[in-house]
Every structure is written in structure tokens, then in C-alpha cells.
Design a protein that fits this description.
The structure is a single chain. The chain is of the alpha+beta class and 191 residues long. The chain is built from 5 helices and 8 strands; from the N terminus they run H-H-H-E-E-H-E-H-E-E-E-E-E. Strands 2-1-3-4-5-8 form a 6-stranded mixed beta sheet, sandwiched between helices. Strand 4 and strand 5 form a beta hairpin. The longest helix has 17 residues. The two termini are 22 Å apart.
Length: 191
């Protein structure tokens, strides 16, 4: 489940998934570079790495690659300083998901509460997800049911209460579990 196909993530096909994510080729290139680094580093493990990238320059502003938690990232001094010293909506977060899941409720809460411009999740099976915070509160720990939806990339999340569209265009609809609040994403888009 958590083994990475290193040949695939180093391929042109995988690299093309990052073209046009931000509209800035330098930032897209940095996102691809960090995806390959994270997936290579965490290959065969349940560890996650997180990098914060400046949305204008593509410079790395903060990084955590030594997190000891499985399926999560502890914010270290580097990440906390990046959030503190950069204006709201100027950072893009990118992290890996060894379980191959799309962005979670916790990812959306983190994106909204830290005011990231964009979030990117790369999975160990080669999928890439992007997501943005919206303006409707939702609960962080949600139980998702998954079905298939076709020909939808962007979804207005006002109705239903929350909708996540991963790359393969499956739809996940949460049923809330009372915990931390966050912000519903405007969209999770195909890359």
C-alpha cells in the first residue's frame, strides 16, 4: 500500500501532472521536485513530509522531513516560522499521503486555519490532489463515504455541506463527527 513506484514518479508522465497547477512554471517545478523528494524519502513507510513553498517565487519557506508520527506531520520550528513570517495566502503546502487517500478533513482545517493559498497532496500510488480553503465551517474529523461521479472537476461546496473531488473524480461526502472546526474547500481539482 505505501510502496512508491520510483520509476513512475521520476517519469515525464508524473511530471506533467504538475504543469499548470499554479500558473507559475517555477512554482510548478518546485512542487514536482518536492513531490519526488517526499515520495522517495517516505517510500515504504507511513511517514509524511511537509514543505511550504512561496506561491510567487517557488522558494522553500519551511520543511518538516523528520516527523516521527505515522500518517501525520508535527509542525516544527521551520514550518511555524514560515507561517508566522509570510503573509496570509502566500504559501502552498505540499505533503505526501502514504495511505493513498485524498486530502482529509485535517488537511482542509490546516489549509484554512493557516491561510495557505493552496494545498497539494501526493500519494504513494502516484495521484496528485490540490485543494483550497473556502468560507464555510466544517468539522475536521469526518467520516467519508465514496462513490463515483463523472465530468466534475470543480464543485461549489455550499450544497452539499462539503464535497471533495479527487483526481480520479470520485466524490467523498462527509458525515460530521464533533471535533475541531475548519473551512470547507472551494474546490479540490484534478491535476
Amino acid at each position: 500500500e505505501n510502496t512508491v513506484d520510483l520509476k513512475y514518479i521520476n517519469s515525464d508522465e508524473y511530471k506533467q501532472k504538475f504543469n499548470g497547477i499554479t500558473g507559475n512554471p517555477n512554482v510548478d517545478k518546485q512542487l514536482h521536485s518536492q513531490a519526488v523528494a517526499q515520495l522517495t524519502h517516505r517510500n515504504g513507510t507511513y511517514g509524511e513530509d511537509l514543505t511550504l513553498i512561496n506561491a510567487e517565487t517557488g522558494n522553500i519557506e519551511g520543511r518538516q522531513s523528520k516527523s516521527l508520527s505515522e500518517n501525520g506531520v508535527e509542525y516544527n520550528n521551520s514550518l511555524n516560522k514560515a507561517v508566522e513570517h509570510n503573509p496570509p495566502y502566500s504559501l502552498i503546502s505540499i505533503h505526501n499521503h502514504p495511505t493513498n487517500n485524498p486530502p482529509t478533513g485535517s488537511d482542509l482545517v490546516s489549509n484554512g486555519s493557516r491561510k495557505y493559498k493552496l494545498g497539494v497532496v501526493v500519494t504513494h500510488n502516484g495521484r496528485v490532489f490540490t485543494y483550497k480553503a473556502g468560507n464555510t465551517p466544517f468539522l475536521a474529523n469526518m467520516q467519508y463515504t465514496t462513490g463515483t461521479i463523472t465530468n466534475v472537476i470543480n464543485v461549489d461546496t455550499d450544497n452539499p455541506q462539503a464535497t471533495v473531488i479527487p483526481i480520479e473524480r470520485h466524490i467523498s461526502e462527509p458525515s460530521p463527527v464533533p471535533t475541531a472546526m475548519g473551512i470547507i474547500p472551494n474546490t479540490v481539482v484534478k491535476v
